């Protein structure tokens, strides 16, 4: 059984970061909402309670069943988690006189305490709280303090229950990783054997068992997630995996053929489906971004359904869903406004009757890339920028036509090739070009032109949730602009997008 750490989420903005830090120590962990988590069995080695925007002093604060777990499993409460255990077990949490946000330094630590092994007595820590633990219960012992926060860390004497007011998961807590290591390895006894190789081995075995002789269809896009999912499934079930790559007419220049070629030598059973016209027909006359997205989602499902019928007796649909997609849908933060409808989220219509298999739904993107490397997948595939399923349709503002797609493909190829040649492709998280249906006046060879605009976008990001525009070198931008205007008929002006997300988004629609 895969040993794991349970992270109970009370809604902190740092909960995912806790998970990342745990996994960087080669220890598997899962995030679950504080009020909805699976049975705690012997695979769980310890529990971490996250921070929270809530206060323990407000009415009906988020709860944790302390009596049930205290003394049976190691527990580490972070910020709210620490405040909760202190407040309801003999201590008191009060509003602090000053809101503490940012760097602080420990001023006292109990160097004998296993939680502080190899940690500097004046170590820098990161604080983010408005409440403070004013008093602690008789069986609680202070094991670290700062100038202003007396109870910066405590242990419930003689047990493996700990609380810390600061955030070890953020990099500004310079010994944060050592502290987590101390808790996870020394206190919980985790083995640190969760690596990309071990993930590959256990996942393939589990897929074999789950799928037996069943057939699976999988949408392969050439992107990182579906490629890694496909190779894992291929190792597990071989020829019973049927990959379908749809040419929706919205791919980048030459992408259809190059993606098909790149998969050929990997031995995957892959079928290309030319559905260009079906997508163009569905998009004809549509200008509203949400209507365009919905139309594309609908045609994807129809094309898939047809392809699955052709294969016959298919029981499963494979998907490249990754962990952030899952976390967002079970988050304790509650429903958020729909900004954009992603074409692949929203479930399958009832008529498809397929079960879903998602071998990557516990991994973050960089972990997916590491698993891909462990599987020997071409670094060129693993290093690709993310590309949205609705493709160029959401990079052509307004109505999509095959003519506009052709113009955008040419311009985008010039842009991306220059990023590669200039050695910046790998430093950029995502780049793409946008076709703006505005016309402006230009002059070329003494002739007046009245043509469209191409906008270039390049962003830095960790996960696509927030992003900043890249400061590309002016010389490179000048070269790209020249090349596009001189070579792409229909374009006489190039602009660069300098908006961050939020308030803008990465894609324009
Ligand atoms: N042209 C396509 N043909 C078949 N399936 C597709 C196509 N485009 C997208 N999909 C499906 O939609 C899923 C979601 O696309 P998404 O872009 O999020 O992931 P990806 O393409 O696998 O990876 P990346 O995020 O790196 O682009 C893909 O995993 C794939 O299953
Ligand atoms: O597979 C996808 N289907 C979609 O419908 C979709 N919409 C946006 N994206 C990608 O998500 C990231 C964030 O994009 P936004 O800032 O535009 O929301 C960026 O990486 C976008 O390219 C999509 N990916
Ligand atoms: N980061 C946190 O967990 C904050 C906890 C609590 N809301 C406070 O302000 O003190
Ligand atoms: Mg993609």
From TrEMBL:
<dbReference type="Pfam" id="PF00117">
    <property type="entry name" value="GATase"/>
</dbReference>
<feature type="active site">
    <location>
        <position position="169"/>
    </location>
</feature>
<feature type="domain" description="GMPS ATP-PPase">
    <location>
        <begin position="194"/>
        <end position="384"/>
    </location>
</feature>
<feature type="active site">
    <location>
        <position position="167"/>
    </location>
</feature>
<comment type="subunit">
    <text>Homodimer.</text>
</comment>
<dbReference type="GO" id="GO:0005829">
    <property type="term" value="C:cytosol"/>
</dbReference>
<dbReference type="InterPro" id="IPR022955">
    <property type="entry name" value="GMP_synthase"/>
</dbReference>
<keyword id="KW-0067">ATP-binding</keyword>
<protein>
    <recommendedName>
        <fullName>GMP synthase [glutamine-hydrolyzing]</fullName>
        <ecNumber>6.3.5.2</ecNumber>
    </recommendedName>
</protein>
<keyword id="KW-0547">Nucleotide-binding</keyword>
<dbReference type="InterPro" id="IPR022310">
    <property type="entry name" value="NAD/GMP_synthase"/>
</dbReference>
<dbReference type="InterPro" id="IPR017926">
    <property type="entry name" value="GATASE"/>
</dbReference>
<dbReference type="Pfam" id="PF00958">
    <property type="entry name" value="GMP_synt_C"/>
</dbReference>
<dbReference type="InterPro" id="IPR001674">
    <property type="entry name" value="GMP_synth_C"/>
</dbReference>
<comment type="pathway">
    <text>Purine metabolism; GMP biosynthesis; GMP from XMP (L-Gln route): step 1/1.</text>
</comment>
<dbReference type="InterPro" id="IPR004739">
    <property type="entry name" value="GMP_synth_GATase"/>
</dbReference>
<feature type="binding site">
    <location>
        <begin position="221"/>
        <end position="227"/>
    </location>
    <ligand>
        <name>ATP</name>
    </ligand>
</feature>
<comment type="function">
    <text>Catalyzes the synthesis of GMP from XMP.</text>
</comment>
<dbReference type="Pfam" id="PF02540">
    <property type="entry name" value="NAD_synthase"/>
</dbReference>
<keyword id="KW-0658">Purine biosynthesis</keyword>
<dbReference type="InterPro" id="IPR025777">
    <property type="entry name" value="GMPS_ATP_PPase_dom"/>
</dbReference>
<keyword id="KW-0436">Ligase</keyword>
<dbReference type="InterPro" id="IPR029062">
    <property type="entry name" value="Class_I_gatase-like"/>
</dbReference>
<keyword id="KW-0332">GMP biosynthesis</keyword>
<dbReference type="GO" id="GO:0003921">
    <property type="term" value="F:GMP synthase activity"/>
</dbReference>
<dbReference type="InterPro" id="IPR014729">
    <property type="entry name" value="Rossmann-like_a/b/a_fold"/>
</dbReference>
<keyword id="KW-0315">Glutamine amidotransferase</keyword>
<dbReference type="GO" id="GO:0005524">
    <property type="term" value="F:ATP binding"/>
</dbReference>
<feature type="active site" description="Nucleophile">
    <location>
        <position position="79"/>
    </location>
</feature>
């Amino acid at each position: 059984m895969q040993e794991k750490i349970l992270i109970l989420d009370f809604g902190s903005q740092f909960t995912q970061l806790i998970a990342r830090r745990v996994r960087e120590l080669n220890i598997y962990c899962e995030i679950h909402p504080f009020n909805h988590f699976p049975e705690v069995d012997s695979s769980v080695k310890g529990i971490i309670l996250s921070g929270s925007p809530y206060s323990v002093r407000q009415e009906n604060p988020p709860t944790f069943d302390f009596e049930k777990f205290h003394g049976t499993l190691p527990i580490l409460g972070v910020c709210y988690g620490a405040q909760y255990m202190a407040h309801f077990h003999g201590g008191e949490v009060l509003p602090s006189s000053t809101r503490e946000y940012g760097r602080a330094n420990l001023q006292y630590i109990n160097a004998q305490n296993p939680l502080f092994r190899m940690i500097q007595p004046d170590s820098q820590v990161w604080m983010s709280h408005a409440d403070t633990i004013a008093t602690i219960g008789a069986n609680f012992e202070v094991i670290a303090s700062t100038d202003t926060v007396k109870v910066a860390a405590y242990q419930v004497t003689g047990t493996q229950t700990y609380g810390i007011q600061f955030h070890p998961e953020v990099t500004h807590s310079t010994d944060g990783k050592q502290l987590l290591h101390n808790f996870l390895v020394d206190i919980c006894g985790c083995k640190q054997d969760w690596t990309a190789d071990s993930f590959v081995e256990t996942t393939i075995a589990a897929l074999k068992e789950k799928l037996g002789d069943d057939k699976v269809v999988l949408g392969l896009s050439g992107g990182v997630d579906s490629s890694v999912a496909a190779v894992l499934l291929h190792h597990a079930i071989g020829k019973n995996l049927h990959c379908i790559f749809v040419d929706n007419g919205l791919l980048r220049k030459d992408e259809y053929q190059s993606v098909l070629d790149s998969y050929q030598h990997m031995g995957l059973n892959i079928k290309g489906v030319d559905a260009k016209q079906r997508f163009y027909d569905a998009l004809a006359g549509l200008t509203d971004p949400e209507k365009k997205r919905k139309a594309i989602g609908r045609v994807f499902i129809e094309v898939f359904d047809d392809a699955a019928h052709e294969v016959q007796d298919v029981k499963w649909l494979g998907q490249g869903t990754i962990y952030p997609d899952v976390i967002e849908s079970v988050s304790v933060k509650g429903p958020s406004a729909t900004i954009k409808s992603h074409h692949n989220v929203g479930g399958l219509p009832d008529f498809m009757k397929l079960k879903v298999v998602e071998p990557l739904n516990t991994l973050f993107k960089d972990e997916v890339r590491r698993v891909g490397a462990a599987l020997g997948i071409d670094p060129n595939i693993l290093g690709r920028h993310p590309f949205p399923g609705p493709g160029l349709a959401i990079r052509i503002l307004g109505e999509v036509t095959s003519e506009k797609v052709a113009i955008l493909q040419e311009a985008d190829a010039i842009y991306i090739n220059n990023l590669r040649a200039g050695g910046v492709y790998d430093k950029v998280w995502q780049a793409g070009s946008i076709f703006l249906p505005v016309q402006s006046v230009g002059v070329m060879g003494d002739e007046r032109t009245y043509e469209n605009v191409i906008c270039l976008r390049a962003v830095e990001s960790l996960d696509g949730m927030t992003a900043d525009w890249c400061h590309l070198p002016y010389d490179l931008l000048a070269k790209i602009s020249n090349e596009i205007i001189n070579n792409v008929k229909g374009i006489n002006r190039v602009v660069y997008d300098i908006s961050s997300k939020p308030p803008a988004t990465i894609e324009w629609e």
